[in-house]
Amino acid sequence: MEGVLIVNKPASWTSHDVVQKARGILKERRIGHTGTLDPLATGVLVLCVGRATRIARHLEAQDKEYHAHLRLGVTTDTLDSDGSVCEQREYAPPSRERLLDVMRSFLGDQMQRPPAYSAVKVSGVPSYRLARAGNAVELAPRPVSVRHIELTSYEDPVVGFSVVCSKGLYVRTLCSEIGEALGSGAHLTGLERIRSGPFTIEAAHTLEQIEACRMAGTLEGLLLSMDQALADLPLVELSEADTRRISQGNRLSWESATDSPHYVRIHTPEGALLAIARIAAGMLRPETVFS
Q1: What pLDDT shows up at residue 241?
Q2: pLDDT score at 261
Q3: Nearest to 177, CA basis, from 195, 163, 192, 167
Q4: 3 state SS of 181
Q5: Catalytic residues
Q6: pTM tops 0.70, yes or no
Q7: Structural domains of the chain, with CATH
Q8: Which of 101, 80, 107, 93 is nearest to 154 (CA)?
Q9: Which one in 36, 135, 175, 211 has a CA-CA gap of 20 to 30 Å to 142?
Q10: CA atoms within 13 A on the CB side of 209
């Protein structure tokens, strides 16, 4: 069994829990996800099954969209409501205009420090394990981007907002940063990923639905093919001779309409996905070739 499965992750489950459950249902060990969701969070978790694990990094690189809620006036050690309270602050409730101004100040490219309670590895050990043992490590900032942010509700002390962002951005860190910019402090209280790349919450399946399809023998109908999952990548048409060269891992000279490096799909003469290639510096270079 191979393909891409869009799961609607339930609250209180880790992303690894979902992967383990899917392995049991699909009877396939080769399953990985394309972007961790914290236990508090719900929503779109993209699973790559079988050979589709080879395209995970291409799917993981895509933008994400979330609906979130934060609470002003309280900070926690994990930056969300699953953690222990660090501080409760007195503050004057900000106006909607002030909230909007602060939120919009985070638009664009920036450096963000991952929270100590995260899955980022420190010498091979997840950071959250060190933090739980009292040995929290300050992690290095990493480049992220906020593409869009919108205030969706506000009834002090709870603020609702939506955000479209790059991979690697921690929404609970963003909530904490918004709270600090307001002077009130804040922590994340609810999070739903409603989109990961082209995959939306409307297309996601609950674990119960996936289990029911297994019982009915219709699991294959839930899986997207690798070609379908990569449909956002442009398709390059090649001659039969060039297709054969790509299938053997050879690169080709290639003129591109843009100087920016980018990825494309390549099909076999029969129309099946053959390879993912990168166009850069006048060359078409196969990076993942499927037999």
Answers
A1: 92
A2: 87
A3: 163
A4: helix
A5: 38
A6: yes
A7: 3-62+198-228 (3.30.2350.10), 71-182 (3.30.2350.10), 233-289 (2.30.130.60)
A8: 93
A9: 135
A10: 14
Q: What is the DSSP letter of 230?
A: T
SS (H, E, C) the chain: CCEEEEEEECCCCCHHHHHHHHHHHHCCCCEEECCCCCCCCEEEEEEEEHHHHHHHHHHHCCCEEEEEEEEECEEECCCECCCCEEEECCCCCCCHHHHHHHHHCCCEEEEECCCCCCCCEECCEEHHHHHHCCCCCCCCCEEEEEEEEEEEEEECCEEEEEEEECCCCCHHHHHHHHHHHHCCCEEEEEEEEEEECCEEHHHCECHHHHHHHHHHCCHHHHCECHHHHCCCCCEECCCHHHHHHHHCCCCEECCCCCCCCEEEEEECCCCCEEEEEEEECCEEEEEEECC
Residue 128 structure tokens: 């959250």
What is the identity of the amino acid at 187?
Answer: H
Grouping H, G, I as helix, E, B as strand and the rest as coil, residue 72 is: strand
Question: Are the C-beta atoms of residues 37 and 193 closer than 8 Å to each other?
Answer: yes
* Spatial separation of the C-alpha atoms in residues 125 and 103, rounded to whole Å: 33
User: What SS3 state is found at 208?
Assistant: helix
Amino acid, res. 238: L
> Is-contact 289 265, C-beta < 8 A?
no
CA distances from 62 to 128, 229, 282 (A): 25, 12, 24
Residue with tokens 């080709």: 252
Q: What pLDDT, in 10s, does the model give residues 83-125?
A: 999 999 999 999 999 999 999 999 999 999 999 988 888 988 8
**Torsion sign (Cα): 70, 71, 73, 77:** negative
- Token look-up 């390879």 returns 275
Average pLDDT over residues 134-146: 92
- Whole-number Å distance between alpha carbons of 61 and 169: 12
DSSP assignment of 257-268, as one string?
A: S-SS-EEEEEE-
